[in-house]
């Protein structure tokens, strides 16, 4: 929602927000005219800003058609970064969103001026482990308009450690296709960053040193866009600023190692030696870590007569085979052990399916988003997108995820 609360000074035409990719980038053509301004009063912390974004993403598809929305409270805490049992912090953050106002001043399609004000959330409540919340009809209409804001990828949002940096990213992101935010008055920028009303930041020197420079540095390091600030002076005083924007060509390196470092390691060379492809070797190391992969390589090394080392190693990594004692020879005991492993994995999968079936549709959607946000590797994300909770590539990670969501879920297995 932070982006929805940003001051917007321009409108964009386009096809609108893709309903099937809530966390994907919103592609729109160039800005046409000066039509709108929406901003938020009050000071939101980094976690509160993240919370407002998650709530909006969760509600977006039914923002207009439904008067209220729901999300599993524990899942919400995990997605935002709270301790999953810290309901008091969640309550305080929801209270802050309900007490914070959004104000807009824009032209409608007929060119008539419209001013309005609304609390960010009209209400929120926690009951039975579910967070229920709503937006006022007027604000929901504005938030749903793709000309007003652009949805933010939650995986990128998770990387931010500064509220100023996330606020700057939210306000600049939608202009990546146009290359610039356009000129913002300094007073407007202070409101966007939540530092209006502070005498300290009345000084541009302080604003630049403590807000602009650190925020730009974090956005450029953390996100999928690169910013370059420009300033306009009247005499010796800075009165306006804008940000030149371009896509970050290094974004892929934020998620997947380019292989330069990995290829120098012993683990990578061991994988290549047994016939694993370059891409799969880098994927396994990035996803599971060198220690885990080395453990499975050791397991493979202790098996004689394996016809397909790559296939066997794939199963060992996927199903978490454990190294046997060096003195143990392959035989009936090993075969029985493998059968037991397969049976265990089958029982775990059945348990996962049962856990998913017990969740509400809203909870299931939130669970998938939360799990996807944990996956850094594109191949792993693609397999989960194709197979869901049945994904063999992500089986170990899926079991770990559900064990965190429902502690003790697999203990009896």
Count of structural domains:
3
CA radius of gyration: 25 Å
Secondary structure tally: strands = 11
**Percent helix among the residues?**
40-55%
The total count of helices amounts to 17
Spans of at least 5 consecutive residues with low confidence: 1-37, 252-260, 324-336
Arithmetic mean of pLDDT? 76
Classify the beta-strand content into a percent band: 5-15%
Let me know the largest β-sheet.
Answer: 3 strands, antiparallel
Gross morphology is globular
Strand/helix succession = EEEHEHHEEEEHHHEHHEEHHHHHHHHH
Largest sheet: spatial strand order: 3-5-6
Q: What is the terminal separation in angstroms?
A: 42 Å
The structural class is: alpha+beta
Protein name: Initiator Replication protein
Organism: Roseivivax lentus
Family: Belongs to the initiator RepB protein family.
Region (Disordered): 1-25
Folded structure, characterized:
Residues 31-172 form the Initiator Rep protein WH1 domain. One of its GO terms (biological process) is DNA replication initiation. Belongs to the initiator RepB protein family. It comes from Roseivivax lentus. This protein has 413 residues and is α+β, with helices and mostly antiparallel strands. It folds into three domains: 1-158, Arc Repressor Mutant, subunit A (Orthogonal Bundle), CATH 1.10.10; 166-255, Arc Repressor Mutant, subunit A, CATH 1.10.10; 260-405, no CATH class. The protein is 46% helix and 14% strand. The protein has 17 helices and eleven strands. The chain has helices spanning 46-59, 73-80, 87-99, 137-144, 154-157, 163-172, 186-193, 204-222, 251-255, 266-273, 278-288, 290-301, 309-319, 332-357, 361-374, 378-387, 395-405; strands at residues 11-12, 31-33, 38-40, 69-72, 101-107, 113-119, 123-127, 130-134, 184-185, 225-234, 237-247. It has a three-stranded antiparallel sheet. A three-stranded antiparallel sheet has the order 4-8-7. A hairpin with a 2-residue loop joins β10 (225-234) and β11. α2 (73-80) packs parallel to α15 (361-374), α6 packs across α8 and α10 (266-273) crosses α11. The radius of gyration is 25 Å and the shape is globular. Residues 1-37, 252-260 and 324-336 have low confidence and may be disordered.
